[in-house]
Specification:
This protein is an alpha+beta fold. It contains 10 helices and 18 strands. Helix 1 packs across helix 2. The protein is globular.
């Protein structure tokens, strides 16, 4: 096999992902599934897979055909073909559509069904067959998305590409360093000069290290499927223990929300439940989703720490930054948890201090170093 191509473009990305993330071998089947706008990224994956001696196939969702089908009948639109989940091999997915603003205004459930090509039945079959896969976030970095978020497209693309080219072995080393101590802790306190001070308890045997390397037959989709870029450590939080205030200092992005950018999320907790929340900007989408979130929506369920040194504040992947701590509310099943709320929301905090079992552990993103308010919306949950 000839040496892998140098550089930082699509060819280099394909070589790294198929080699280090998926471990593609000779005579394996590799399916590259893409929307038409991302073909420039998808084609090199097909070529690289064939260069490695694998049997590679390209599946394309044509965007123009998709929207013409949408005009005819939403139910006529297929999910990802089930045969793609039924083989033991590798799957690479470049999501879409690029012109997603055309979906704005549709009911939320319809939008989710249209853009989530891989439903629960697909995932179950994929895990049983031993399929391992990656979702490439670079496909989401488009001109319509950049315009909706108000960010520079070229800078966003550079950051996501840089994060995607980080060797997963580097993420694994960083993850092991953090996991060793974090996995033994029972209590955690997150502090910041912005007023954050939140006391939490860690659920036993709940550690996840997402370094991007996937394996066939993993018991959850997190082990058999990853996003590129990736890189984080997560622990699930014990129910009933969360007291204090959390205030995010990083933006939260949701391209389908109105507004798509939320800033200054402030959450107040007592006895493991969210009591009050407010935002500096863009909190309407949170309030709408929270209202219909159901049982478990008000519970903090996981704490994350980013590992990726190439990610800083890029939309949709900012929680991967190696100086960032994240707090998840609601559904945590992707991390092996049992909270089945119809709601999940992750906010992030840069420059935090973290204490484990009452002792300083994490200081502004480094291990082993010391230690006019807005109107408040009060959620009506009905849970104690």
């Amino acid at each position: 096999m000839t040496p892998r191509p140098p550089g930082r473009g699509p060819d280099a990305l394909a070589a790294l992902v198929l080699d280090r993330y998926l471990g593609v071998r000779r005579r394996e089947t590799v399916t590259v599934e893409t929307w038409s706008h991302a073909l420039e990224w998808a084609r090199p994956f097909v070529l690289e897979a064939r260069r490695r001696g694998a049997e590679a196939f390209l599946v394309v969702e044509d965007e123009a055909t998709f929207f013409r089908s949408l005009a005819l009948s939403v139910p006529s639109l297929p999910v990802a073909p089930s045969p793609l989940a039924g083989h033991r091999g590798a799957h690479v997915y470049f999501g879409g559509p690029e012109a997603f603003p055309r979906l704005l205004g549709l009911p939320v459930r319809d939008v989710e069904a249209l853009v989530a090509r891989h439903g629960p039945a697909w995932w179950r079959r994929a895990r049983r067959s031993g399929l391992r896969g990656v979702r490439m976030a670079i496909a989401s970095v488009t001109a319509p998305a950049a315009a909706r978020y108000g960010v520079d497209l070229a800078a966003w693309r550079r950051e996501v590409l840089g994060g995607s080219l980080v060797d997963p072995a580097r993420l694994a080393r960083r993850g092991r360093k953090l996991a060793g101590r974090l996995g033994r802790a029972r209590r955690v306190t997150v502090r910041h000069a912005n007023g954050t001070r939140l006391d939490l308890a860690i659920e036993r045997a709940s550690l996840t290290v997402a370094d991007g390397r996937v394996r066939a037959g993993a018991p959850t989709s997190r082990g058999a499927w990853t996003q590129v870029p990736t890189g984080f450590v997560a622990v699930r939080l014990a129910d009933g223990v969360a007291d204090g205030v959390w205030e995010s200092n990083r933006a939260t992005y949701d391209r389908f929300a109105n507004a798509p950018v939320a800033l200054g999320a402030r959450f107040s907790f007592a006895r493991g439940r969210l009591l009050e929340f407010s935002f500096d900007r863009g909190g309407e989408a949170f309030h709408t989703a929270y209202r219909r979130g159901g049982h478990g929506r008000n519970r903090p369920t996981a704490l994350t720490i980013g590992l990726n040194p190439a990610i800083d504040r890029a939309p949709e992947v900012g929680e991967l930054s190696d100086r960032t701590v994240g707090l998840l509310l609601g559904d945590n099943r992707s991390l092996g948890g049992r909270n089945r709320a119809r709601f999940s929301y992750l906010t992030t905090l840069g420059g935090a201090h973290v204490d484990l079992d009452g002792r300083p552990w994490w200081f502004d993103g480094r291990v082993g170093r010391a230690s006019s308010r807005r109107s408040v919306a009060r959620p009506t949950d009905g849970e104690p």
